[in-house]
Design goal:
CATH topology: 60s Ribosomal Protein L30, Chain: A
Structural class: mainly beta
Number of domains: 1
Order of helices and strands: EEEEHEEEEEEE
Oligomer: single chain
Distance between the termini: 33 Å
Number of helices: 1
CATH architecture: 2-Layer Sandwich
Number of strands: 11
Radius of gyration: 16 Å
Length: about 160
């Protein structure tokens, strides 16, 4: 890990290959490089930066091997694949810890294929093809835990 401070109270950290981030106050801007999976990268960031809760406010880039979907009325996730590289035009969500302390990312996205066909929904998996640039706002004083919900395939947020 490489740490650099500058005169503007920013910290830039490189976590080996695949991800670099900078922090200014509670804001983090992350660059994720080709071949890296977005959920895994952001979960690693939560551990490395040492935060328990964050809002993922925006994300753009170009990704491939996208698995996305939605939860139906029975509480079951329906998954779809979007294999070809696509433009990541919008990404948002949050990061919280599970009951055993592991970071958990909940992300929704919108992609555009090269012909401008749009796909959107809950992101299950997404690999960076060219680059992903993601902004997070750390919620320093928030206490959020992801816990199983009865009868649905979702870990819900519990605040306490």
């Amino acid at each position: 890990m490489t740490l650099q401070n500058n005169r503007y109270d920013q910290v830039t950290i490189t976590l080996g290959i695949g991800m670099e981030w900078t922090r200014s106050g509670e804001d983090l801007l992350v660059r994720i490089d080709p071949g890296e999976e977005i959920h895994a990268s952001l979960q690693k960031l939560a551990d490395e930066a040492g935060f328990n809760a964050a809002a993922i406010t925006s994300g753009i880039g170009r990704t491939c091997a996208n698995i996305y979907g939605y939860m139906n009325n029975d509480g079951i996730y329906i998954k779809r694949n979007l294999e070809p590289p696509s433009e990541l035009v919008s990404l948002s969500g949050n990061i919280a810890r599970t009951q055993d302390g592991k970071p958990f990312t909940h992300i929704h996205c919108c992609w555009s294929e090269d012909d401008n066909t749009v796909h959107a929904g809950h992101m299950f998996s997404c690999t960076v093809a060219v680059v992903a640039e993601i902004h997070l706002r750390v919620m320093t004083h928030a206490v959020m835990t992801r816990c199983p919900l009865a009868d649905v395939q979702l870990l819900g947020l519990q605040f306490s």
